[in-house]
Amino acid sequence: MVPERKAFVLRINKDLWDELQRMAAQELRSVNAQIEYLLREAVAKRGRRLRAPNSDDARGKEGS
């Protein structure tokens, strides 16, 4: 079963976007998957638990 995904618009500084694109390319992810990865990492560092993403999400198969 595909997990529910929430779509939203994000306004972001061009320099930050460019860096996210570089990071995503280096890690073979889409920018969307990279942002989600970084958000999950930040949430975990704050001691919060989330369900693990499925393997397709972690690899950025959903597109950017």
SS elements, strand count: 0
Secondary-structure element order, as H and E? Answer: HHH
- Cα(first) to Cα(last) distance is 21 Å
Given helix and strand content, the structural type is mainly alpha
Radius of gyration: 12 Å
Strand portion, in percent? under 5%
Mean pLDDT reading: 85
Alpha plus pi helix count: 3
Major sheet description: none
Low-confidence stretches: none
Helical percentage: 40-55%
What is the overall shape? globular
Explain what you see:
- This protein is mostly helical and 64 residues long.
- The protein has a domain of 34 residues.
- It contains three helices and no strands.
- α1 crosses α2.
- The radius of gyration is 12 Å and the shape is globular.
- It starts with 13 loop residues before the first helix and ends in a 5-residue tail after the last helix.
